[in-house]
Amino acid sequence: MTKFAEITGWGKCLPPAVMTNDDLATFLETSDEWIVSRTGISERRVSHVGTSELATVAARNALAAADLDPNELDLIIVGTCTADELIPNVASKVQQNIGSKHAAAFDLNAACSSFLYAMHVATQGIKTGAHKKVLLIGAERLTRILDWTKRESAVLFGDGAGAMVLEASDEEVGLLASHISCDADARDVLSLDFGSSFDRFNFDGIMQFDFVGQEIFKRAVKGMSAAVDKVFQETGMTTDDIDALIPHQANKRLIDFLGKMCKVPSEKTVINIQNYGNTSSATLPIAFAEAADNGIIKPGDSIMSAVFGGGLTCGAGLIKWGQRVTPKRPNQMELPAGDKSALELIVPMHEATKKAWKNRGQ
Predict the structure, then answer these.
(1) In terms of Cα–Cα distance, which of 228, 287, 218, 233 is closest to 263?
(2) For the CA atoms of the chain, what is the radius of gyration?
Protein backbone atom coordinates (compact mmCIF):
# COMPACT_ATOMS: atom_id res chain seq x y z
CA MET A 1 0.00 0.00 0.00
CA THR A 2 1.37 3.42 -0.98
CA LYS A 3 2.35 5.61 1.92
CA PHE A 4 1.96 9.37 2.13
CA ALA A 5 4.30 11.88 3.81
CA GLU A 6 2.29 13.67 6.48
CA ILE A 7 3.58 16.94 7.96
CA THR A 8 3.57 16.18 11.69
CA GLY A 9 5.92 18.87 12.95
CA TRP A 10 6.94 22.40 12.06
CA GLY A 11 9.14 25.10 13.52
CA LYS A 12 11.30 28.11 12.77
CA CYS A 13 14.29 30.06 14.02
CA LEU A 14 14.61 33.80 13.49
CA PRO A 15 17.69 35.64 14.81
CA PRO A 16 16.81 38.33 17.37
CA ALA A 17 18.79 41.16 15.69
CA VAL A 18 16.49 43.20 13.43
CA MET A 19 17.73 45.48 10.65
CA THR A 20 15.14 47.98 9.44
CA ASN A 21 15.14 49.87 6.17
CA ASP A 22 16.02 53.01 8.10
CA ASP A 23 19.05 51.18 9.48
CA LEU A 24 20.17 50.35 5.94
CA ALA A 25 19.78 54.00 4.95
CA THR A 26 22.49 54.95 7.45
CA PHE A 27 25.19 53.41 5.20
CA LEU A 28 23.48 52.84 1.82
CA GLU A 29 21.94 55.36 -0.55
CA THR A 30 18.38 54.17 0.00
CA SER A 31 15.22 54.82 2.01
CA ASP A 32 12.33 52.95 3.55
CA GLU A 33 10.02 54.21 0.77
CA TRP A 34 12.43 53.07 -1.96
CA ILE A 35 12.76 49.55 -0.54
CA VAL A 36 9.11 49.00 0.40
CA SER A 37 7.76 50.24 -2.93
CA ARG A 38 10.02 47.88 -4.90
CA THR A 39 10.14 44.81 -2.67
CA GLY A 40 7.55 44.97 0.11
CA ILE A 41 10.32 44.46 2.67
CA SER A 42 10.38 46.57 5.85
CA GLU A 43 12.96 44.69 7.91
CA ARG A 44 15.09 41.55 8.02
CA ARG A 45 17.02 39.52 10.60
CA VAL A 46 20.81 39.32 10.96
CA SER A 47 22.26 36.23 12.61
CA HIS A 48 25.12 36.23 15.09
CA VAL A 49 25.45 32.43 14.80
CA GLY A 50 26.16 30.05 11.96
CA THR A 51 23.73 28.31 9.63
CA SER A 52 23.94 25.02 11.54
CA GLU A 53 22.84 26.69 14.78
CA LEU A 54 19.88 28.33 13.06
CA ALA A 55 18.99 24.96 11.54
CA THR A 56 19.31 23.19 14.89
CA VAL A 57 16.84 25.48 16.68
CA ALA A 58 14.31 25.15 13.85
CA ALA A 59 14.80 21.37 13.91
CA ARG A 60 14.22 21.14 17.65
CA ASN A 61 11.03 23.17 17.30
CA ALA A 62 9.73 20.91 14.52
CA LEU A 63 10.57 17.78 16.52
CA ALA A 64 8.77 19.25 19.55
CA ALA A 65 5.67 19.97 17.46
CA ALA A 66 5.71 16.34 16.28
CA ASP A 67 6.70 15.05 19.74
CA LEU A 68 9.28 12.90 18.00
CA ASP A 69 12.46 11.42 19.48
CA PRO A 70 15.41 12.40 17.22
CA ASN A 71 16.55 8.77 17.25
CA GLU A 72 13.42 7.82 15.33
CA LEU A 73 14.55 9.86 12.33
CA ASP A 74 15.98 7.92 9.40
CA LEU A 75 16.82 10.92 7.17
CA ILE A 76 17.80 14.58 7.64
CA ILE A 77 17.95 16.95 4.67
CA VAL A 78 19.12 20.54 4.99
CA GLY A 79 18.39 22.91 2.13
CA THR A 80 20.99 25.69 2.11
CA CYS A 81 23.38 27.66 -0.07
CA THR A 82 25.22 29.19 2.92
CA ALA A 83 26.76 26.21 4.69
CA ASP A 84 29.16 26.99 7.54
CA GLU A 85 31.90 24.97 5.84
CA LEU A 86 32.41 22.98 2.64
CA ILE A 87 32.98 19.68 4.47
CA PRO A 88 31.29 18.25 6.48
CA ASN A 89 27.72 19.23 5.67
CA VAL A 90 25.27 21.20 7.79
CA ALA A 91 22.93 18.21 8.11
CA SER A 92 25.54 16.17 9.96
CA LYS A 93 26.05 19.02 12.45
CA VAL A 94 22.30 19.24 13.04
CA GLN A 95 22.23 15.46 13.51
CA GLN A 96 24.98 15.74 16.11
CA ASN A 97 23.33 18.68 17.87
CA ILE A 98 19.91 17.05 18.23
CA GLY A 99 21.34 13.66 19.21
CA SER A 100 20.03 11.66 16.27
CA LYS A 101 22.02 8.42 16.01
CA HIS A 102 20.53 6.54 13.07
CA ALA A 103 19.64 9.02 10.32
CA ALA A 104 21.29 9.56 6.98
CA ALA A 105 22.11 13.25 6.52
CA PHE A 106 22.89 15.45 3.54
CA ASP A 107 22.62 19.03 2.27
CA LEU A 108 20.74 20.05 -0.86
CA ASN A 109 21.53 23.26 -2.73
CA ALA A 110 18.90 24.45 -5.17
CA ALA A 111 19.18 28.00 -3.78
CA CYS A 112 15.76 29.45 -2.93
CA SER A 113 14.05 26.31 -4.26
CA SER A 114 15.94 24.00 -1.91
CA PHE A 115 13.17 23.30 0.59
CA LEU A 116 10.57 22.27 -1.98
CA TYR A 117 13.22 20.22 -3.80
CA ALA A 118 13.98 18.50 -0.47
CA MET A 119 10.30 17.94 0.22
CA HIS A 120 9.92 16.40 -3.25
CA VAL A 121 12.85 14.02 -2.63
CA ALA A 122 11.79 13.07 0.90
CA THR A 123 8.19 12.43 -0.11
CA GLN A 124 9.32 10.05 -2.84
CA GLY A 125 11.50 8.26 -0.30
CA ILE A 126 8.54 7.81 2.03
CA LYS A 127 6.22 6.71 -0.79
CA THR A 128 8.64 3.98 -1.84
CA GLY A 129 9.14 2.78 1.73
CA ALA A 130 12.81 3.73 1.82
CA HIS A 131 12.17 6.18 4.68
CA LYS A 132 9.56 6.59 7.38
CA LYS A 133 10.46 9.67 9.41
CA VAL A 134 12.29 12.58 7.80
CA LEU A 135 13.46 15.95 9.10
CA LEU A 136 13.55 18.72 6.48
CA ILE A 137 15.24 22.06 7.14
CA GLY A 138 15.76 25.23 5.14
CA ALA A 139 18.45 27.41 6.72
CA GLU A 140 20.43 30.41 5.51
CA ARG A 141 22.88 33.00 6.79
CA LEU A 142 22.86 35.15 3.68
CA THR A 143 24.02 38.32 5.40
CA ARG A 144 27.54 36.86 5.60
CA ILE A 145 27.93 36.54 1.81
CA LEU A 146 26.26 39.70 0.50
CA ASP A 147 28.11 42.63 -1.01
CA TRP A 148 26.83 45.29 1.36
CA THR A 149 27.90 48.08 -1.02
CA LYS A 150 25.36 46.93 -3.66
CA ARG A 151 21.97 48.42 -2.79
CA GLU A 152 19.94 46.42 -5.32
CA SER A 153 20.78 43.10 -3.70
CA ALA A 154 21.77 44.08 -0.15
CA VAL A 155 18.27 45.25 0.77
CA LEU A 156 16.61 41.97 -0.27
CA PHE A 157 17.98 39.27 1.97
CA GLY A 158 17.92 38.12 5.58
CA ASP A 159 18.82 35.19 7.83
CA GLY A 160 16.64 32.46 9.28
CA ALA A 161 15.63 28.80 9.30
CA GLY A 162 12.50 26.69 9.18
CA ALA A 163 11.85 22.97 9.51
CA MET A 164 9.27 20.23 9.04
CA VAL A 165 8.94 16.62 10.13
CA LEU A 166 7.44 14.23 7.58
CA GLU A 167 6.14 10.83 8.70
CA ALA A 168 4.76 7.91 6.73
CA SER A 169 0.96 7.80 6.84
CA ASP A 170 -1.89 5.84 5.29
CA GLU A 171 -3.91 9.05 5.01
CA GLU A 172 -3.79 10.96 1.70
CA VAL A 173 -1.93 13.97 3.08
CA GLY A 174 1.35 15.80 2.62
CA LEU A 175 2.90 16.66 -0.73
CA LEU A 176 0.43 15.00 -3.10
CA ALA A 177 1.86 16.32 -6.37
CA SER A 178 4.95 18.31 -7.28
CA HIS A 179 6.90 19.47 -10.29
CA ILE A 180 10.51 20.67 -10.13
CA SER A 181 12.71 21.89 -12.97
CA CYS A 182 15.75 24.01 -13.84
CA ASP A 183 16.17 26.73 -16.49
CA ALA A 184 19.93 26.25 -16.77
CA ASP A 185 20.38 28.41 -19.86
CA ALA A 186 19.88 31.46 -17.65
CA ARG A 187 21.85 30.23 -14.64
CA ASP A 188 24.23 33.21 -14.72
CA VAL A 189 21.58 35.88 -14.05
CA LEU A 190 21.64 34.91 -10.37
CA SER A 191 25.01 33.78 -9.10
CA LEU A 192 27.56 34.15 -6.35
CA ASP A 193 31.07 33.53 -7.62
CA PHE A 194 33.55 32.12 -5.16
CA GLY A 195 33.65 28.56 -6.43
CA SER A 196 35.99 27.44 -9.22
CA SER A 197 37.39 30.94 -9.60
CA PHE A 198 38.06 31.36 -5.88
CA ASP A 199 41.74 32.05 -5.30
CA ARG A 200 42.34 31.35 -1.63
CA PHE A 201 45.78 32.96 -1.69
CA ASN A 202 44.64 36.26 -3.19
CA PHE A 203 41.05 36.50 -1.96
CA ASP A 204 40.24 40.10 -1.04
CA GLY A 205 36.87 39.48 0.60
CA ILE A 206 34.65 40.33 -2.38
CA MET A 207 32.33 37.56 -3.50
CA GLN A 208 30.92 38.55 -6.89
CA PHE A 209 27.13 38.52 -6.56
CA ASP A 210 25.38 38.82 -9.94
CA PHE A 211 21.71 39.68 -9.69
CA VAL A 212 19.92 40.69 -12.90
CA GLY A 213 16.65 41.72 -11.32
CA GLN A 214 14.38 42.23 -14.34
CA GLU A 215 15.44 38.97 -16.01
CA ILE A 216 15.02 37.06 -12.74
CA PHE A 217 11.54 38.53 -12.24
CA LYS A 218 10.45 37.60 -15.75
CA ARG A 219 11.73 34.05 -15.58
CA ALA A 220 10.48 33.55 -12.02
CA VAL A 221 6.90 34.44 -12.90
CA LYS A 222 6.99 32.28 -16.03
CA GLY A 223 8.64 29.32 -14.31
CA MET A 224 6.50 29.27 -11.17
CA SER A 225 3.19 29.75 -12.97
CA ALA A 226 4.08 26.94 -15.41
CA ALA A 227 4.97 24.65 -12.50
CA VAL A 228 1.68 25.47 -10.75
CA ASP A 229 -0.24 24.72 -13.96
CA LYS A 230 1.47 21.33 -14.27
CA VAL A 231 0.54 20.43 -10.70
CA PHE A 232 -3.06 21.44 -11.35
CA GLN A 233 -3.09 19.31 -14.50
CA GLU A 234 -1.72 16.31 -12.62
CA THR A 235 -4.24 16.56 -9.79
CA GLY A 236 -7.25 17.75 -11.75
CA MET A 237 -7.69 20.54 -9.22
CA THR A 238 -8.23 24.24 -9.88
CA THR A 239 -7.62 27.44 -7.95
CA ASP A 240 -11.14 27.09 -6.51
CA ASP A 241 -9.92 24.01 -4.64
CA ILE A 242 -6.99 25.82 -3.02
CA ASP A 243 -7.29 27.12 0.53
CA ALA A 244 -3.96 28.97 0.53
CA LEU A 245 -1.02 29.92 -1.65
CA ILE A 246 2.28 29.84 0.26
CA PRO A 247 5.02 30.85 -2.20
CA HIS A 248 8.71 31.58 -1.87
CA GLN A 249 9.08 35.04 -0.32
CA ALA A 250 11.37 36.81 -2.78
CA ASN A 251 9.56 40.04 -3.61
CA LYS A 252 6.02 41.15 -2.81
CA ARG A 253 5.44 42.39 -6.36
CA LEU A 254 6.47 38.97 -7.64
CA ILE A 255 4.13 37.21 -5.19
CA ASP A 256 1.24 39.49 -6.18
CA PHE A 257 1.92 38.88 -9.88
CA LEU A 258 2.10 35.13 -9.34
CA GLY A 259 -1.22 35.20 -7.49
CA LYS A 260 -2.88 37.00 -10.38
CA MET A 261 -1.43 34.64 -12.99
CA CYS A 262 -2.55 31.61 -10.98
CA LYS A 263 -5.91 33.28 -10.23
CA VAL A 264 -5.50 32.90 -6.47
CA PRO A 265 -7.16 35.76 -4.56
CA SER A 266 -4.91 37.89 -2.37
CA GLU A 267 -6.75 36.89 0.80
CA LYS A 268 -5.62 33.29 0.22
CA THR A 269 -1.95 34.24 -0.24
CA VAL A 270 0.44 34.01 2.73
CA ILE A 271 2.99 36.85 2.73
CA ASN A 272 5.55 37.54 5.46
CA ILE A 273 8.40 39.02 3.40
CA GLN A 274 7.80 42.42 5.03
CA ASN A 275 9.22 41.04 8.29
CA TYR A 276 12.13 38.89 7.15
CA GLY A 277 13.14 39.71 3.59
CA ASN A 278 14.20 36.86 1.33
CA THR A 279 15.69 34.07 3.46
CA SER A 280 16.19 31.82 0.40
CA SER A 281 15.58 28.15 1.26
CA ALA A 282 14.16 29.14 4.65
CA THR A 283 11.25 31.27 3.38
CA LEU A 284 8.92 28.35 2.70
CA PRO A 285 9.24 26.47 6.02
CA ILE A 286 9.17 29.74 7.99
CA ALA A 287 5.95 30.76 6.21
CA PHE A 288 4.39 27.34 6.83
CA ALA A 289 5.37 27.38 10.51
CA GLU A 290 3.91 30.85 11.02
CA ALA A 291 0.74 29.98 9.09
CA ALA A 292 0.22 26.92 11.29
CA ASP A 293 1.05 28.69 14.56
CA ASN A 294 -1.19 31.67 13.71
CA GLY A 295 -4.21 29.55 12.81
CA ILE A 296 -4.12 30.38 9.10
CA ILE A 297 -3.80 26.71 8.15
CA LYS A 298 -6.93 24.73 8.96
CA PRO A 299 -7.33 20.94 9.24
CA GLY A 300 -7.43 19.34 5.80
CA ASP A 301 -6.42 22.49 3.93
CA SER A 302 -5.13 22.23 0.36
CA ILE A 303 -2.09 24.48 -0.08
CA MET A 304 -0.21 25.40 -3.24
CA SER A 305 3.46 26.34 -2.97
CA ALA A 306 5.74 27.71 -5.67
CA VAL A 307 9.48 28.42 -5.56
CA PHE A 308 12.21 29.89 -7.71
CA GLY A 309 15.93 30.23 -7.16
CA GLY A 310 19.45 30.31 -8.52
CA GLY A 311 20.21 27.76 -11.15
CA LEU A 312 17.58 28.80 -12.26
CA THR A 313 15.67 26.23 -10.23
CA CYS A 314 11.91 26.22 -10.07
CA GLY A 315 9.05 24.18 -8.68
CA ALA A 316 5.53 23.92 -7.32
CA GLY A 317 3.73 21.51 -5.06
CA LEU A 318 0.24 20.74 -3.79
CA ILE A 319 0.21 20.00 -0.08
CA LYS A 320 -2.71 18.50 1.82
CA TRP A 321 -2.48 19.34 5.50
CA GLY A 322 -3.53 16.71 8.04
CA GLN A 323 -6.05 17.08 10.84
CA ARG A 324 -3.65 18.35 13.51
CA VAL A 325 -2.81 22.05 13.36
CA THR A 326 -1.41 22.51 16.87
CA PRO A 327 1.99 21.35 18.11
CA LYS A 328 2.10 18.42 20.50
CA ARG A 329 4.74 20.21 22.54
CA PRO A 330 5.75 23.91 22.57
CA ASN A 331 7.72 24.75 19.42
CA GLN A 332 8.81 28.33 20.11
CA MET A 333 12.44 27.84 21.17
CA GLU A 334 14.57 30.85 20.22
CA LEU A 335 18.23 31.70 19.88
CA PRO A 336 19.78 33.56 22.81
CA ALA A 337 20.41 37.21 22.04
CA GLY A 338 23.84 38.18 20.78
CA ASP A 339 25.96 41.02 22.12
CA LYS A 340 25.74 43.12 18.92
CA SER A 341 22.93 44.89 17.11
CA ALA A 342 22.20 44.19 13.45
CA LEU A 343 24.04 47.37 12.46
CA GLU A 344 27.05 46.42 14.57
CA LEU A 345 27.17 43.10 12.74
CA ILE A 346 26.77 44.51 9.23
CA VAL A 347 28.58 47.88 9.12
CA PRO A 348 32.08 46.34 9.51
CA MET A 349 31.36 44.09 6.51
CA HIS A 350 30.15 47.09 4.51
CA GLU A 351 33.29 49.05 5.33
CA ALA A 352 35.60 46.11 4.58
CA THR A 353 33.94 45.47 1.22
CA LYS A 354 34.05 49.16 0.30
CA LYS A 355 37.77 49.18 1.07
CA ALA A 356 38.30 46.01 -1.01
CA TRP A 357 36.52 47.53 -4.02
CA LYS A 358 38.68 50.66 -3.64
CA ASN A 359 41.82 48.51 -3.61
CA ARG A 360 40.64 46.88 -6.81
CA GLY A 361 40.40 50.36 -8.31
CA GLN A 362 36.59 50.30 -8.67
Answers:
(1) 228
(2) 20
- Which of 248, 262, 275, 350 is flagged as catalytic? 248
* CA 347 to each of CA 48, 149, 209, 322: distance values in angstroms, whole numbers, following the listed order: 14, 10, 18, 45
pLDDT at 218 over 90: no
Task: Compute CA 129 distance to the chain's CA centroid, rounded to the nearest angstrom.
Answer: 27
- Which of 81, 112, 182, 262 is the catalytic position? 112
Q: Cα–Cα distance between 224 and 260 in angstroms, integer?
A: 12
The reported pTM is 0.94
β-strand pairing of 75-79 with 104-108: parallel
Out of 278, 314, 331, 350, which one is annotated catalytic? 278
Classify domain 4-359 by CATH architecture. Answer: 3-Layer(aba) Sandwich (3.40)
Residue range 279-294: average pLDDT? 97
13 is catalytic: no
For the question of residue 278 being annotated catalytic, the response is yes
- Catalytic site includes residue 182: no
Q: How far apart are CA 300 and CA 70, in angstroms?
A: 26
